[in-house]
Records
---
Amino acid sequence: MTAGLPDLETFRVTADHRDRLAKSGHRHKFDYGHVVVGAGPALQGGAARLAARAALRIGAGLVTVLAHRDAADAHAAQLNAIMLQTYDQTPRFAGQLAVLSPDAICVGPNFGTSVTAREKLNVVLAQSVPLCLDADAITMIAQDRQAFSARASDRVVLTPHAGELRRLIPGAFDRTDCRVTLARTAARDLGCVVLFKGPDTLVAQPDGTCVVVSSDGIPHAAWLATAGAGDVLAGFITGLLARGFAPACAAALGAHLHLQCAAVVGPGLVSEDLPDALPRVLSAMLSEP
Ligand SMILES: NC(=O)C1=CN([C@@H]2O[C@H](COP(=O)(O)OP(=O)(O)OC[C@H]3O[C@@H](n4cnc5c(N)ncnc54)[C@H](O)[C@@H]3O)[C@@H](O)[C@H]2O)[C@@H](O)CC1
Ligand SMILES: Nc1ncnc2c1ncn2[C@@H]1O[C@H](COP(=O)(O)OP(=O)(O)O)[C@@H](O)[C@H]1O
């Protein structure tokens, strides 16, 4: 248990997690899953690219950024291993998504909250694969919570910070400031896995299960308070979803690895550094007996 968070299990990496994170044998890239990251407005693609790079670093076999054609030049100039697919009109977004046939999808990081962004979010919600919904996706869900709850399930992970969680469950914030209660309330009311970000990250499930991924004792964790760190976390989680980790496990393990990356990078950390610290973190973790 963690101080100040009674009755809460602390997330710990197990041998099974390590086995499943490793890549070995004769498997090929398609065996490790395909992540699609939905991107937003043309000149604001950085957050989607951060998520995409994080998903690739955590071992998804393929990662594609799906963007409007207007944004293609900006993305193409900055993507190499990550693939790029475009659509020319919002109605074609669904068709392109079907062609890509992802194993997990991330939407939210600078996705926008326009009418067309909402149409695309609805297409994503209709997919049967695991989803990580962050940032602007959460803001849109908060505007029509009932419709989301009717479609949500525990294959969906929402990753709100405190501002976003308040939008999702404003009434609960009037009743309590207990972060555990807030995370559990959101998971129960929305019917999906909720990762509540903060120095202590909470992962709650609709059945009330809740684990904490604590930053206690992790050097330099406070350097995660920087723009884009959450976008990277969304990418880590989506990559783990594509690799077949169950949503609550993907969320907690993703948050754990995120903290370990901060410890490796240290002071001066910016969000781009986090995915690129993952090889050192994974090498150390996978060589543990
Ligand atoms: N490099 C990039 O392109 C970046 C893009 N970003 C995108 O910018 C968009 C807006 O996201 P923001 O979160 O900045 O703005 P939001 O407006 O969604 O949320 C910020 C609001 O929530 C409040 N708040 C309360 N508790 C908070 C907490 N613990 N952490 C953060 N805010 C808290 C803030 O005071 C503020 O009013 C998203 O689409 C996001 O993905 C950001 O992730 C930053 C980096
Ligand atoms: N002081 C801190 N200690 C540990 N982790 C932190 C701290 N501040 C922020 N984080 C982590 O950094 C990430 C920030 O995400 P978020 O607020 O969504 O930022 P952004 O929208 O800029 O990407 C979350 O994973 C959060 O848990």
Note: The chain has a mean pLDDT of 96.
---
Amino acid sequence: MKVDLLDTLRHQNPIVFNISNFVTVQDVANGLNALGASPIMSEEVAEAGEMVGLSSAVCLNLGAFTQTQVEQIRKVGEVANQQHKPLVIDPVAVGAVAYRKMVANNLLTHFHPDVIRGNAGEIAALADVDWQAKGIDAGEGTGDLVAIAQACAQKLNCVVILSGPTDVITDGTRVVKVLNGTPLFQVHVGSGDMLSSIVAAFCAVEPDYFEAAQTACLVFAAIGERVAQATPNLGAGSFSVQLMDGLQLTTTAQINAIAAHQ
Ligand SMILES: Nc1ncnc2c1ncn2[C@@H]1O[C@H](COP(=O)(O)OP(=O)(O)O)[C@@H](O)[C@H]1O
Ligand SMILES: Cc1ncsc1CCOP(=O)(O)O
Ligand SMILES: [Mg+2]
């Protein structure tokens, strides 16, 4: 696990272009900025080419799109592929809303993502595995999470992150698990969206996207875990503030000291 990539990221300060959702856009911008990347957002399809051109990675969040925004997402995904910029997709709630799954599957015929990051309900839906997703949350299912993540990665020919209490990262064959984290991530809406954009930031500084994805998961989960451990009885509001501080101030040595992965 290349935790030192965090120092590279902070040194290079890569621009990450995000199409975010209106719910968590502030978390995504500030999370990236605190960690050491440079976020930029846009809702205008006419500037898609320039936006991708100035960025070192792109993250497309499918959390709350309109039909107009779907056109923008498709254009940005196509341009990212043409310009060979790393492309990360966050397929929010595709397991809970049939329309979203249809839109996501259609978008995936227009461009190829390098990494897909979702919870169990979302990754199961993209892999066409039976699962009871609950809105934006993972929901419940009985399937094997590693097998589901691998099936999704093989089907879509990309790296897949199936996040949750344990993050599963796979390229379809190789599998790494990140065991760090805190249940407080679940009481803050936007944890997953932040992680997806941070995955893109690591893809900007590491061309092996399987490596970039697992490092992003470890860095984010370990920082959350440290923050939770540092303050007893931390609640949802304080956690989100402390998490921002942690993203900015945590060192690679501190992450290595608690890193738990297989
Ligand atoms: N119960 C948990 N314990 C530890 N970490 C968790 C837990 N649930 C989620 N996480 C962490 O929260 C982050 C967001 O993942 P997740 O909750 O799966 O995304 P989403 O918000 O899209 O559903 C990841 O870093 C994941 O490791
Ligand atoms: C609540 C909500 N509704 C549409 S997108 C969104 C945010 C999802 O954020 P996350 O997947 O990071 O919890
Ligand atoms: Mg999510």
Note: The CA atoms of residues 134 and 178 lie 23 Å apart.
---
Amino acid sequence: MENIVKGTDMKKIDSYTINEIGIPSLVLMERAAKSVADLIDKNERKQKNNITIQVIAGIGNNGADGVAIGRMLYLLGYNICIFVIGDKERATEEFKTQLSIVEKIGVPVVSSVIDADVVVDALFGIGLSRDITGTYEQLISEINKMKNIIYAVDIPSGINGDTGEVMGCAIKANYTVTFGCHKIGTVLYPGADYCGQVEVSDIGYPVQSYNEASEILEYAGVDDLKMIPKRANYSNKGTFGKILIVAGSRDISGAAVLCAKAAFRAGAGLVRIFTHENNRDIIAKLIPEAMINTYNTEKFNKKAFEACLNWCDVVAVGPGIGIGTIQQMIVEQVIESKIPAVIDADGINNIAADERVKKNFHKKLILTPHLGEMSRLINKPVKEIAENLIYYAKELNYRYGANVVLKDARTVIATDGQIYINLSGNNGMATAGSGDALTGIISALIGIGCDFEKAAVMGPYVHGLAGDMAAHKVSKTGLMATDIIEEIKSVITD
Ligand SMILES: NC(=O)C1=CN([C@@H]2O[C@H](COP(=O)(O)OP(=O)(O)OC[C@H]3O[C@@H](n4cnc5c(N)ncnc54)[C@H](OP(=O)(O)O)[C@@H]3O)[C@@H](O)[C@H]2O)[C@@H](O)CC1
Ligand SMILES: Nc1ncnc2c1ncn2[C@@H]1O[C@H](COP(=O)(O)OP(=O)(O)O)[C@@H](O)[C@H]1O
Ligand SMILES: [K+]
């Protein structure tokens, strides 16, 4: 797992590294600048002699980075100039040092913005402290209108490093090189959208420095796929989990099929679908690998359902089950059984307003609400939740003890007080049935022996990677839940 911190916490990490550890500020800055200059050089080298580059520098240390990047590119032979905006008298010591160096070297420092082919955005970094107005706002609007390639230094100017919100206006970058680790502002929307492609550059912050952060969030990367257990040779289908999927309702069968298929593709050994009796034939046709048990809305056989619960290792309950007293009873029974469970969609809706049931939530539950379901669950408006994903995921996890996978364009996971943000996936995944696939994946991961809390983190990661692979093949626009499911096998390999 890799770190994500608030921009303001990164400033504390910076200052601890400089003042307590003793790595000089200019040393960190040199490494920071070098990583940006290296990326620009890698991308632009071929047209080196035909392009102009302008660094737009503020007078803080983000601007100081920019001036250093300008110097490095100048020394590499690029046609570059630096535009400084702000009162140089009020500049940081590092800025003054960097400016004096470029003046001695003879790097052009100009007094206006030019229509350069490449712009280095070093106006504001994590020191942005208020909304952008006046001449800065005009400058950003002017730069955004140009058809150039923009490289943002640390974070696009105007994005709040603590939240990802736009502080009045912001630079729309093509690339962002962020230092040390991701900031919340570079991963959450809308900030993430302003970053373009993000590269995290290790500029040498020692691990101790991260203790200065008020909170460290994490995200999964390719290396973390190792957390998914490999299949043992000495095994049988029971070894890889018995998954009970409670899904579908009268004549609604798709959700159950998608969820079950995703579970199989993610490695589940045995899948039993518990659904409405009308769905039996169609589900048997669409997924013959699954066992099927059915219920009848007129007289629900609680004992038969109990037998299914006794059979399984993991339950996934909710996709397409609809709303009703029987469904509510089912969800309650799952919760009371204390069997590890994933509760999704109508599984959540059926009990969302019932405090008595929610009090029974426990640590072996993973709730996977999208914003609408979360809104019903915690009785807050969707907009309020969308703007405070981390806060509400954490709050729900803290209040009831259940693990939370709060699904959105960036899914936020809260398990045992730790927050994770999923960075895989794409907008093509905003398509019917995509969430059903996720539920299947998470339950299969639990079934095959992945650590329970980690399944809540790795599920969305695997789902997103499969979605990315599928989008590569069929495009984001054309992506269907089935395409995501088909790619799970390329993510979880032997
Ligand atoms: N050694 C180091 O420390 C390292 C630091 N690093 C780099 O430093 C960056 C952080 O530098 P920083 O702390 O100096 O803050 P920065 O982002 O330049 O902004 C502060 C300036 O902006 C101004 N300002 C703020 N908001 C404003 C607004 N709305 N409208 C107008 N002005 C506004 C503010 O003015 P003031 O509030 O004082 O009036 C001040 O002048 C970080 O992102 C990374 O790039 C790396 O090189 C690694 C090593
Ligand atoms: N813009 C997006 N970028 C990345 N992932 C997305 C985006 N929109 C939706 N998703 C993902 O797709 C899934 C949609 O789930 P859900 O809303 O429950 O769909 P459904 O109910 O149709 O199955 C979630 O995992 C969500 O994180
Ligand atoms: K910047």
Note: Residues 452-474 form the longest helix (23 residues).
